[in-house]
């Protein structure tokens, strides 16, 4: 048997095996290279992801105020903040007893003149005469006495009375007396809704100022001395402070000059006196007034107004009484009282 063919076959088989081995080695080599090169990259990717997650976890968030906000949202927030600030300012009221010169600060209330600026250090008595409910049939009699005695005073007028007697209102102002509002028609402001109370103050102020042709109303007095914080806010909106009193002559209740004189001349160094020039028969008030003035003059008192200064009322001028407002038809009111569920 010949051995030659077997050798060829073995050689062929060996070559084939070698080729296969080389191929396997090559393939395995590339696969190994791929594994060797891709493994470190994967590790780096994993490390990066881990570091990023840790950084995201540990990095503090910026405050909302430092984050970007759309302009429209920022403007809206600014407007809301300004509106809230205005609302708080409108609702805030000054302390009671605050003065702005010789009238109460807007939104405040005074019921005596103990702390009136410019007079705290004076040793002489201080007297403020005030008259409510006018103008009326006796207003000009009172004005004549005051002018003759060279004594200032303050008149708190009702809007409906100014409509009824505009010439008397003008004569009071022309004589130089300070003028305040006593509301439109003498309602108890504390019992009204805030809207109705504000209407009472706003309308009376408008009518007085329009009748006199200038901003004459610098303060007000609440009817019956009755008011609350809503009243003070409404007055503040109109730029007015409230004036009370510490001596009530009760001329609204008694028609007796001697009793009015006695009540109007009580002992004291600072007197804020309540009298009336309308709202009833005021002949007893007219009769008592010269005695009240004489009493305080004898004590060396100084007379002052409490609603700012008008032209001097103490220059002895003659009062023009040629026009009588009773001849004037009452003008129609330019606005109606608002309806309120609470009234």
What topology emerges from the helices and strands here?
Elements: H1 4-58, H2 71-91, E1 99-100, E2 103-104, E3 109-110, E4 126-134, H3 139-149, E5 154-157, H4 159-164, H5 166-174, E6 178-181, H6 194-212, E7 217-220, H7 229-237, E8 241-243, E9 247-248, H8 257-264, E10 270-276, H9 283-298, E11 302-303
Parallel strand pairs: 3-8, 4-5, 4-10, 4-11, 5-6, 6-7, 7-8, 9-10
Antiparallel strand pairs: 1-2
Give the mean pLDDT. 79
Largest sheet: 9 strands, parallel
Radius of gyration from CA coordinates: 46 Å
Give the number of helices.
9
What is the share of helical residues?
Answer: 40-55%
Q: Which spans have pLDDT < 50 for at least 5 consecutive residues?
A: 1-13, 19-38, 311-319, 322-343
Overall, the morphology is: elongated
Q: How many strand segments?
A: 11
Structural class by SSE content: alpha/beta
Distance between the termini: 140 Å
- The percent range for strand residues is 5-15%
Order of helices and strands: HHEEEEHEHHEHEHEEHEHE
Describe this structure in words.
The protein is α/β, with parallel strands linked by helices and 343 residues long. It has nine helices and eleven strands. Strands 3, 4, 5, 6, 7, 8, 9, 10 and 11 form a nine-stranded parallel sheet that branches. A two-stranded antiparallel sheet has the order 1-2. Helix 8 (257-264) links the parallel strand 9 and strand 10. Helix 6 (194-212) packs parallel to helix 7 and helix 8 runs parallel beside helix 9. 36% of the residues are buried.
């Amino acid at each position: 048997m010949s051995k030659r063919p077997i050798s060829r076959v073995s050689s062929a088989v060996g070559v084939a095996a070698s080729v296969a081995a080389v191929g396997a080695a090559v393939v395995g080599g590339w696969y190994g290279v791929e594994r060797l090169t891709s493994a470190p990259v994967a590790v780096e990717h994993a490390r990066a992801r881990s570091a990023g997650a840790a950084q995201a976890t540990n990095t503090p968030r910026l405050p909302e105020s430092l984050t970007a906000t759309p302009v429209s949202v920022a403007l809206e927030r600014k407007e809301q903040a300004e509106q809230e600030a205005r609302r708080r300012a409108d609702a805030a009221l000054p302390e009671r007893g605050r003065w702005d010169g010789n009238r109460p600060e807007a939104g405040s209330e005074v019921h005596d003149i103990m702390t009136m600026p410019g007079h705290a250090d004076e040793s002489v008595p201080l007297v403020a005469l005030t008259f409510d409910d006018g103008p009326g049939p006796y207003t000009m009699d009172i004005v004549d006495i005051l002018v003759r005695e060279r004594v200032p005073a303050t008149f708190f007028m009702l809007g409906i009375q100014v409509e009824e007697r505009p010439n008397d209102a003008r004569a009071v102002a022309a004589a130089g007396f300070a003028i305040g509002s006593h509301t439109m028609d003498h309602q108890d402001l504390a019992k009204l809704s805030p809207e109705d109370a504000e209407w009472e103050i706003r309308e009376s102020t408008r009518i007085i100022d329009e009748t006199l042709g200038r901003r004459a109303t610098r303060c007000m007095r609440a009817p019956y001395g009755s008011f609350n914080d809503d009243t003070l806010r409404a007055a503040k909106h109109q730029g007015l402070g409230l004036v009370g009193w510490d001596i009530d002559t009760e001329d609204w209740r008694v028609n007796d000059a001697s009793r009015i004189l006695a009540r109007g001349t009580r002992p004291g160094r600072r007197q804020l006196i309540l009298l009336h020039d309308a709202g009833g028969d005021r002949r007893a008030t007219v009769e008592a007034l010269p005695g009240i003035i004489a009493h305080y003059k004898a004590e060396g008192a100084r007379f002052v107004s409490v609603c700012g200064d008008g032209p001097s009322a103490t220059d002895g001028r003659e009062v023009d009484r040629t026009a009588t407002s009773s001849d004037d038809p009452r003008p129609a009111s330019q606005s109606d009282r608002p309806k309120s569920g609470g009234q």
